[in-house]
Amino acid sequence: MGSILIKHILLEGQPRNVLIEGKRFKSLDAADGAAAETVLDGSGMALLPGLYNTHTHSAMTLLRGYGDDTSLEQWLDDYIWPVESRLTAGQLQRGYMLATREMARTGTVFFNDMYFDLDTATDVVADSGLRATLGWVMLDGHPLSNRMEVMERIKAWRDPTGGRIQLAMAPHAIYTVARDEIVRMVRFARENGLRIHTHLAETRTEVANCVRDHGMRPVAYLDSLGVLGPDVVLAHCVQVNDAEADLLAERGVTISHCPCSNMKLGSGIFPYERLIKAGCRITLGTDGASSSNNLDLREAMKFAALLAKVGGDPQLLPASQVFDWATRCGAEAFGIDAGTIAEGKLADCLLVDLSDVKMQPCHNLISNFVYSADSSCIAGVLCDGQILYQR
Ligand SMILES: [Zn+2]
Questions:
Q1: For 331-352, what is each residue's pLDDT tens digit?
Q2: Are residues 36 and 146 in the same domain?
Q3: Ligand 1 centre distance from Cα of residue 62 (Å)
Q4: 236 CA distance to ligand 1 centroid (A)?
Q5: Ligand 1 centroid to 34 CA: how many Å?
Q6: Is the pLDDT of residue 166 over 90?
């Protein structure tokens, strides 16, 4: 069992020696002379939890900057889907590698993914040291997403990482997967203990088409199919009214708010007050690098906070709350015993360089990290007691 001692690092305002044994924090106040296989000098740095990205399409790093400045519908129809239908395993591997490197470099220790080729994704995540929930995106008629084949691949899948990877079923959206297919996927997921990951209520067009085709709005439609429950992660939920917010809270779903993608695609303003008032569980995602245009969850925190305030109330979504979404709430939503720095918790954490010009002066560490920092302020990233990145 490996051990890491981080010496003289600032934790809750005090310099501490933090000892990690195996995958977990052993002591947050170890003696100066404590022994460990690896010793890191944390002087001039602060220790924060790692970041949990609850919605992305990681290998879309391949399509970064492709089809920018278009509507969601035009972006998908004219740019993304024609290219994605021709992606090879080798290309996907490079896309996943680029994504995991970017996330590790920018402080993300976990991502909830929705993309193609489970086996390639598993290999890359295993090598990267990150955590992930991998969902094979399902779209009716797509050459890379045959439901029967995907189900067979899921049944044959084994986690090579000792618990860093879990699986999800990922029907893309209510407008790309037929009713019966959604029902079959959700049944399969629940029979096999998988989470369910989909997009919902992203744009006004989606709502209008759902009312036209099914006689009800997206939240009611998915609920009528028996989908909504605590094992479900819904990306976006931008176009949600009061009654729908109440239903999402009642069903215990996790919402992944992706502010950069919503703003770039012109999808609308996330109804922060409505969802919070209803008691919804909210977490934070980047969405894919083709709509966000990076996988930097720290940046998504800043945009989420600013977007909540843009209507006129600067007290909405303070830095501490959006930081909680990106850390503790994200980990909890996926049953990961991490997201805070505490003895016994899984050792997922960031070393933040307080000497960086963007971190000075430091009246409030979390405010600086959310509003002022960029990823260059992150000097080290650990996940599951292993060093993912060190500057
Ligand atoms: Zn998405």
A1: 999 999 999 999 999 999 999 9
A2: no
A3: 15
A4: 8
A5: 45
A6: yes
> Which residues are within 8 A (CB) of 27 and not within 5 positions of it... i.e. 6 or more apart?
17, 18, 19, 34, 343
Count of structural domains within the chain? 2
Which residues have a beta carbon within 5 Å of ligand 1, which is an ion?
287
- Residue 327: phi, psi to the nearest 5? -120, -85
pLDDT at 42 over 90: yes
pTM, rounded to two decimals: 0.97
pLDDT in tens, 175-197: 999 999 999 999 999 999 999 99
Domain that includes residue 275, residue range: 51-333
Same domain, 178 and 107: yes
Average pLDDT over residues 245-259: 98
Sign, CA torsion 287/290/291/292: positive
Which of 333, 362, 380 is the endpoint of a domain?
A: 333
Say how many Å lie between the CA of residue 110 and the centre of ligand 1: 16
Name residue 381's beta-bridge partners.
350, 389
CATH number reported for the structural domain that contains residue 361 in this entry: 2.30.40.10
Residues pairing with 170 in the sheet? 137
